[in-house]
Amino acid sequence: NSDSGNYVNISGDDYVSWNWKAGGPAVQNTDGTITSQVSANVDAGFSIVKWTTTSAAAWNVGHGLSTAPEMIISKTSSFSNSWEVYHKDVGTGKYLLLQSTAAVGTDAGAFSSVTNTTWTSYTTNTLATYIAYCFHSVDGYSKINSYEGGTITSSNPVYLGFRPAFVMFKTTQTGNEWVIYDSARDTSDPLQKILYPSSSAAEGVSTSDNYNLYTTSNGFYFNNTVGYLNNSASDVIFMAIA
Q: Which of 79, 99, 198, 228 sits at 20 to 30 Å (Cα–Cα) from 174?
């Protein structure tokens, strides 16, 4: 077959995939003001949610988890639009964009409420279908949290309770790339191979210690406070998975 338009199986290219197991076939969820279709893995703190709006409104959408999501990644599949991201330490009425380096944006309608059963999704579109990926921390398996840049060292690592196999970071107050490290591409410390969800760029490889990520049996740290993931100008959110 021709490689034209094929971005996932081109001869000679290397690929990485991060996969979360949901709950099998979707089931109807009526917790919100709009019916959603939800596949939820409650034990893993992960659900996939689909819904279709019927008017321009703030819709409460059921997520199917046992507690409030700490991170939500949402996108309409009906037309070209942004990936909107909620993170618990960014807060309600605010958002990040997965495809953008932008700092936190403020919009009263953006994730204005996130509860144990629903979250609020505002849309100006009368008819559109949306998909969302919802996560919350699970002891020993995942951690969604944040830290103040300039404070993370080998003597003061971020505590997770497990050795991370996947970590995604984003600075919230400065315009920097989203970055992903994983133990599939880097099988030993430090983790140096970086992918950027906010860019179509190829994998980057840290050539200095500024962006090397060191993992431990229960967390991670950086060796210095130079890079934007750990300098005093940065507040950083992350999602880590064992």
A: 79
Rounded Cα–Cα distance for residues 134 and 182 (Å)? 20
DSSP 40: E
Separation in Å, CA 153 to CA 21, 82, 118, 190, 242: 33, 34, 37, 14, 20
Give the Cα separation of 195 and 230 in Å (integer). Answer: 18
Nearest one of 143, 161, 163 to 239, comparing CA atoms: 143
Going by C-alpha positions, the residue among 227, 131, 123 that lies closest to residue 176 is: 227
List the strands of the sheet with 94-97, edge to edge. Answer: 27-29, 36-41, 46-52, 129-135, 71-76, 84-87, 94-97, 105-106
List, in order, residues 6 or more apart from 201 with CB less than 8 Å away. Answer: none
The pTM score is 0.94
For residue 182, give the 3-state DSSP assignment: strand
| Number of Cβ within a 10 Å radius of residue 106 | 10
State the sign of the Cα–Cα–Cα–Cα dihedral 21, 8, 73, 64: negative
Tell me: the pLDDT tens digits for 73-113?
A: 999 999 999 999 999 999 999 999 999 999 999 998 899 99
Determine the residue type at 168. M
Residues paired with 95 in a beta bridge: 105
Identify residue 195 by its one-letter amino acid code.
L
The full DSSP string for 127-154 is S-EEEEEEE--BTTTEEEEEEETT--BT
Cα 52 to Cα 128: distance, rounded to the nearest angstrom: 5
**Other beta carbons less than 10 A from residue 42's beta carbon:** 14
